[in-house]
């Protein structure tokens, strides 16, 4: 059974800092991995999707990496802003699209 | 592209009542997923459809839960004889795997059972 762990559970940083969020998974037989953002009481917004054959994906200030063999992914956020404050969720997916989520990292960026 | 929509956004019900939620996926998406999320946890998979066929159900989906997607478009999730433990956010997502496996989520339906 796939298990996904995200560390840390919460993170508070001053504005402008670069930061890394971590995601680990137990079964390396994944189809792809997706990072989401969730604002309080809202649905999920997809940030980046990495296919199992890829090592990283970039979008603006975000960079996600994937090391399938070690069961790890990181989400790097450059030059953090208060608007980045949210919960960040990692999901690993089977080829049917079924997702197993971590419990998220709640990020607070202080002005 | 109007995105994935869910209705209602909030539902308060008394224990023992039945509730039904609706999800309208992005129009060309043939896969539709239901997840449940409790406070402080990540979403948990409940079930998914490819067109009108329900292809997988989690063991979380007890016999009080039923989901349908009768014409391969919108889907409904019904909970019978609600319990306080059913209080959660119910999320729907859709995808079109042939152009990309990325899932697009709706805003969710927050259920409170009193």
Explain what the structure shows:
- Chain A is an all-beta fold and 111 residues long.
- By secondary structure, chain B is mainly β.
- Chain B has no helices and 11 strands.
- In chain B, strands 2, 4, 5, 6, 9, 10 and 11 form a 7-stranded mixed β-sheet that branches. Chain B has a 4-stranded antiparallel β-sheet with strand order 1-3-8-7, with no helix packed on it.
- The model of chain B has no long low-confidence stretch (mean pLDDT 92).
- Chains A and B meet through β4, β5, β9 and β10 of A and β4, β5, β9 and β10 of B.
Task: Offer a quick outline of the entry.
The complex is a heterodimer of chains A (111) and B (114). Chain A is 0% helix and 58% strand. Chain A has no helices and eleven strands.
Sheet with the most strands of chain B? 7 strands, mixed
Question: How many helices of chain B in DSSP terms?
Answer: 0
Task: List the secondary-structure elements of chain A in sequence, H or E.
Answer: EEEEEEEEEEE
Task: Give the rounded overall mean pLDDT of chain B.
Answer: 92
Which chain pair has the greatest contact?
A-B, 26 and 27 residues
Oligomer: heterodimer
Helix content of chain A: under 10%
Label the overall shape of chain A.
globular
Number of strands of chain A: 11
What's the alpha carbon Rg of chain B, rounded to whole Å? 13 Å
Shape of chain B: globular
* Beta content of chain A: over 45%
Distance between the termini of chain A: 41 Å
As a percent range, the share of helical residues of chain B equals under 10%
Distance between the first and last residues' Cα of chain B = 36 Å
Query: How many strands, what sense, and barrel or not for the largest sheet of chain A?
Result: 6 strands, mixed
Characteristics:
heterodimer, A: 111 residues, mainly beta, 6-stranded mixed β-sheet, 5-stranded antiparallel β-sheet, 11 strands, 58% strand, globular, B: 114 residues, 7-stranded mixed β-sheet, 4-stranded antiparallel β-sheet, 0% helix, 54% strand
